[in-house]
Design brief:
The chain is built from 19 helices and 24 strands. It is α+β, with helices and mostly antiparallel strands. The strands form six sheets. The protein has an eight-stranded mixed beta sheet with strand order 5-4-3-6-2-1-7-8, covered by helices on one side. Strands 9-10-15-12-13 form a five-stranded mixed beta sheet. It has a four-stranded antiparallel beta sheet with strand order 18-19-20-24. Helix 6 packs antiparallel against helix 7. The structure holds adenosine-5'-diphosphate (ADP) and magnesium ion. The site of magnesium ion (MG) has 5 residues, from helix 2.
Length: 589
């Protein structure tokens, strides 16, 4: 076949594949164009997660009638004024967004500049200009995009749920709104006003309203402001106390020169800053803004521009770590108010179930002198002290051996026929709970535990959306959930195996996990991730004294549980030292 240059139309569609993966990318590009045009007011309207339509309306400088057709040409931009890629002060500079979006949608741009008496409207269908006419509006621009991806079904196939697309759009909107408190922002979804953020004053860097919208009500009373600058480098923002944390880094909003970024080095620096104060695997919530001289950062890495290169990475990391550490070290309150409240609430709700489970456990011991009911014992509540320590003859022959001791309240030492095994009780139990839940589901024998006092869990709107979207999935593994008001869910029952879990944290973590895996996963994958996240909550936490019986019950359970040699996060659950290994250590061999 002859070699030929691709047509502009095809090139734009290819480029759309990079710039526009989903409606949220369009929302981002359009809002950024509005900001670049010096708008002080931006309104976003979405229908059906943006799939049906997206409208972004601003009061910025506008586009003149004569330039309007040029705006949708590839590599046409008004922003790279002195042809210098080293000094980028705008969001845009590639001139790629409008042509890419136009190529996969029907687009209408209405715009008016100050010195023009009338507005002009340009209609574009799948990249082709259909008409341009005089129109009417105040200074500014309104871009409306509909029928996205209609002719690109491969892409459409991946966009399954309106609700998830809406969540992504909201996320993009919030990230930008938080970094521009001097701009009024409105978001309207399917005819309903969702956010209405007022102008916060020209010198106002941090907006409480916008942060509450992103991180929830708790954030404001459980966070502190940071601010520092040196040699033209600056950092400011609001960071959560170590006690307000979540299971993923999703609630970390990071910006370089007001551009929302995702950067491993910066995430790493934040992790390091909190390393001594936050439990492993938990992440703080924060909005951190870095101000770096434009000549010292390179944003020209990828069209979606969330990656970034720094001239002096170490300096940037250093500033982050030292500013955050010193802010945290000044904190005197060891535990946040919110966590204290949660603790008392959870305990109150469970007083009776503690008592009940204690009775059942004691009954098990009494009734079964020879055969211990391991299943029930594993599912124990706060440790039940038995009167005497029983010796189980012969269990040393079992693969996981006989429990002899517990140390650091998290490790069990067991003796086997040819050595010892050290077991991480929390990790091991987490795996057992997970496998048990999977098995119950497979056998269609889901056991639920009705909460004595149903718990109201308030969720961010993105989390609420995923929970509602996955109602049936939750139900299929034993959760009973209802909608409660505009922003909460009511939890009536949880899987039996999670008895005693902190329901608030459990639901929030699972919602977060689901939000992150997105729509492209099968139901089974979703169930797997709900179960993985949940099982941690049903598991014996480290820091619990266990009786010898409880330890042995755990070991027996491990022997019959698939994959029990590694926890749900891939870490080992037990380590064996054979007599041989031990003798080598003592140089006897
Ligand atoms: P870029 O933002 O990289 O320049 P775009 O394709 O997003 O490329 O936009 C092309 C051009 O259209 C911009 O450079 C700008 O001149 C103009 N433009 C787009 N949106 C707006 C807007 N909301 N207000 C004013 N001008 C706009
Ligand atoms: Mg742009």
């Amino acid at each position: 076949m002859a070699i030929r240059i691709l047509s502009d139309d095809i090139i734009n569609q290819i480029s759309a594949g990079e710039v526009v993966e989903r409606p949220a990318n369009i929302v981002k590009e359009l809002i950024e164009n509005s900001i670049d045009s010096n708008a002080t007011k931006i309104e976003v309207f979405l229908r059906s997660g943006g799939l049906q339509s997206i409208i972004v309306n601003d009061n910025g400088n506008g586009i003149s009638e004569s330039e309007l057709p040029t705006s949708i040409l590839r590599y046409a931009t008004s922003k790279l004024t002195n042809n210098n890629l080293n000094e980028i002060n705008n969001f845009g500079f590639r001139g790629e967004a409008l042509p890419a979006i136009a190529s996969i949608s029907n687009m209408k741009i209405i715009s008016k500049i100050q010195n023009q008496n009338y507005a002009s409207v340009l209609e574009v269908e799948r990249g082709k200009i259909i008409s341009q006419k005089p129109s009417n509006r105040d200074k500014g621009t309104s871009v409306s995009v509909d029928s996205i991806f209609e002719k690109t079904p491969a892409r459409l196939k991946f966009l399954k749920s309106n609700r998830i697309e809406t969540s992504h759009c909201k996320d993009v909107f919030l990230k930008i709104a938080i970094s521009h408190p001097h701009i009024e922002f409105k978001l309207n979804i399917d005819g309903k006003n969702i956010y209405n953020f007022n102008y916060e004053g020209a010198n106002y860097l941090i907006s409480s309203d916008r942060m509450i919208a992103a991180f929830g009500d708790d954030f404001i009373n459980n966070s502190l402001e940071i601010s520092y600058s040196k040699n033209g480098y600056g950092i400011y923002g609001k960071i959560s106390y170590p006690t307000l944390n979540s299971s993923t880094s999703f609630n970390q909003f990071l910006y370089v020169n007001k551009r929302s970024i995702k950067d491993k080095k910066i995430l790493g620096a934040i992790k390091a800053a909190y390393s001594e104060t936050i439990p492993k695997g938990r992440f703080p919530m924060l909005a951190v803004f870095l101000e770096i001289p434009t000549s010292s950062v390179d944003v020209n890495v990828h069209p979606s521009k969330t990656e970034i290169r720094f001239e002096d990475e170490r300096m940037v990391s250093g500033i982050i770590v030292s500013t955050i550490r010193s802010a945290i070290s000044e904190l005197t309150r060891p535990i946040s108010k919110n966590i204290e409240q949660n603790l008392t609430f959870t305990n109150k709700g469970q007083v009776k179930s503690f008592e009940e489970s204690k009775n059942t456990n004691i009954k098990n011991y009494n009734e079964t002198t020879d055969t211990i009911n391991f299943d029930k014992q594993i599912n124990f509540q706060p440790s039940v002290k038995t009167k005497e320590t029983k010796n189980f003859p012969g269990i040393i022959d079992y693969p996981m051996g006989a429990a002899r001791a517990q140390f650091l309240k998290n490790y069990i030492i067991s003796e086997t026929k040819n050595g010892i095994i050290v077991i991480d009780q929390h990790a091991a139990h987490e795996r057992i709970v997970k496998e048990e839940m999977l098995l119950q589901r497979k056998n269609k024998k889901i056991q639920s535990q009705i909460l004595l006092i149903p718990e109201v869990v308030k969720l961010s709107s993105a989390h609420l959306d995923v929970v509602l979207d996955n109602f049936e999935t939750f139900k299929s593994i034993g959760f009973e959930i209802e909608i409660f008001g505009d922003d909460s869910v009511l939890i009536r029952a949880i899987p039996d195996l999670l008895n005693g879990a902190n329901v608030q944290e459990l639901i929030k973590d699972v919602a977060q996990e689901l939000f992150e895996i997105g729509t492209q996963n099968s139901i089974d994958q979703k169930i797997d991730s709900i179960i993985s996240t949940s099982s941690c909550y049903g598991s014996v936490r480290s820091g619990r004294d266990l009786s010898i019986e409880e330890m042995n019950a755990l070991l027996r359970k491990m022997e019959t549980t698939p994959n029990s040699n590694q926890c749900n996060h891939g870490r080992p659950t037990s380590i064996k030292l054979s007599i041989n290994d031990i003798e080598k250590l003592f140089k006897r061999r």
